[in-house]
Amino acid sequence: MKSTKKNDAAISADVLRKVARGMLPFYRTIAVSRSYAKAWTRAVITADLGLMGKLLKQAAPLAARQGYGTNAIGYFVDFTFPPPIAVYTNGTTIPPGLVQFTFSTKVHRRIALAVLPLYRELAFNRNFTKALARGIRRNDRQSVSAMVRGLVRSPALKSVSIEESGIALLFKTSDSPYPYRNLLFKGVE
Length: 189
Description:
Elements: H1 13-32, H2 34-46, H3 49-59, H4 61-64, E1 67-70, E2 74-80, E3 87-93, H5 105-124, H6 126-137, H7 141-149, E4 157-163, E5 166-171, E6 180-186
Antiparallel strand pairs: 1-2, 2-3, 3-6, 4-5, 5-6
C-alpha cells in the first residue's frame, strides 16, 4: 500500500462511519464466538466465498451486502460509495509474501477484541470520526496514531500508519510468527 496523496484524500467521516457500522457486529462476533471465528478462518484459508457470505450475513448483514474476498491469508470487505471514494475497504490480513494459506483464529479473535472500541467510536461518535477523517486527510500521523492508540490498547499493536486514504494497524502477537494488519483504506474500483 502506498501513502495517502493529497489528491486521493477525499475520506470523510460518513465513509468511516458506514464501514464501522457495517463491520462492528462482525468483529464483535469474532471476538465472542470461537466457533464462528473458526468457521471464518476455514472460509478465509480455503477461499470459500459462499461460506464467507453466509457467515457475514449471519453476523453483519450490512457487511454481507458488500463485496468481499480473501487472499487465503486474510479477508477484505468492500463498501461502495459515490466518487471520488467509489470503494472503501476493511479487512485483516497477514502482509503478502510472508506465508500462504495461513490465518490464525486465535490471533484474529485477539485483534477483533482489540479493535472493538475503535470501531464502536467510529460508528457512533461523530466528533471522533470527523477528527480521525481530518487527520487522515491531512496526513497527520501523530494525531491519527494517538486517536487510535487511545482506543486500541493492546500491547500487540506495534504501529499505526496512514495509507491509501485510511489507516493500517500492525499487530504482532506471541501466538504467531507472522504480523497481522487491520486495514481501513480506499480500495480499487
